[in-house]
Prior knowledge:
mainly alpha, 499 residues, disordered N terminus, 2 domains
Amino acid sequence: MSSIAGAVGPVDASGEAEALAALRSPTGVALIAATVLASGVGSYDAYVVNVAVPAISRDLNASVTSIQWTLTGYLLAVAALLLLVGALADRFGRRRMLVIGLCGMLVSSVLCAVAPSIETLIGARVLQGVAAALVVPTSLALLNGTLRVADRARGIGVWAGLTTLATTVGPYAGGWLVDHASWRWVFLLNLPLIGLALLALHRVPESGGPRRPLSLDILGAGLGVVGLGGLVYALTDGAGSGWTSARVLLAFAVGALCLAALLPVERRRRAPMLRLSLFASRQFDAINVATVFYYGALGGASYVMFLQFQLQLGYSAAQAGAALIPSSVVFVGISPLSGALVGRLGPKWLMFSGILMVAASFFWLSRVDAGAAYAAEILPAVLLWGLGLGVSVAPLTAAVLAAVGDADLGEASAVNDATSRLGGLIVTAAIPALIGATGGVSLGEALADGYPTAMIALGAMSVAAAAVTALFVSNAGKAAPSIVAPAPHHGCVLPDAGP
């Protein structure tokens, strides 16, 4: 999504350009390998736990609330820290931050794999999310800052294709490990990938350009972390403890107050984490609102579908991981065409029609229950899902790119990526409430009655995203280049280019 926007930002000064690497040079090859592996690890860790939820729940005797935190703890850490990473990378270097993040992911992955209890696993997942916040935005930013300008678009295309392949295979590989070994091996699959990424980074120089003074918006970051944390805690714990529980109400109130205070605080900061001048564009605002609804629905639907496949349809973890692969295959075939059409047709109606296709697929899939035949009742909807993604994702990326000036591309990209993660985080936290897993009811029991309701609600969220697009997104604005974006992960999040 917005990752590609940040990757095609303004050209550096000519003197710096002389030090940039060619795509086909040893440095260029090492750079592609390192960034693809790093992006793949970040996306894999974000949502591979989806296919392992039933196994983790059985093995660690985890409650619905606890198992939710293994998902939302990671997502919360990434979303809350994402906008700070750019300042760290600008000061200390993108390659250095990427190495630190990869080492952190290696250590936290081992901690996840050996966790003796659900509480330990949740803590390790939060640490993994903190490390991923360093890896995800800096990987593509390093690619953009190291390749020479003439090779940048081609390098991004290679990165996008290989990252899509990793995204497609990841859930199946994780499911196979759950079936044939243990859910613990899901976290160890990262280790060789991280090792190869670190090895490749030995051939990659630090990103050039002058280092900026470190300017961290600690107050803004703190309000964002506490605000999101309070909201997510209320949504996650409310399903089990009751929505009128004192701690749930307190968490919601504290979260809401912190998020409400964020805007006026940022407006007064000299170097804010969130530069509010970007939101002077109605186009930019509308795209981000649509992104929250759309990517929230995508993340929630993927999670609910993985649960439904295993707990109601009796699929193995590997079969559940493979069930949505056709959507990625269709996406890969359609997205280049959609990206090329943006320049001719504009992004608005491509976004609108693609999002509605995804909504239709969710309504279709809401009828899937025990005994449903995959080829006749599931596959057509999954193919429609992929078609909708292929039609909508590249135009959405192009619309973000066209909504701001060239000097703001990187920051606008980071903001849009953060909104996609915010949508996925909030909806994932709310899934137990959507399916009715409250008051001690297990996920499997709740799905029997709550699955159709949840999928219809997620389809309605997609319709809301389409409505925002139709009413407020415009085809007017500066021309944007044709874009081929990597497939959204089965969980909605794209690697970001960062600032």
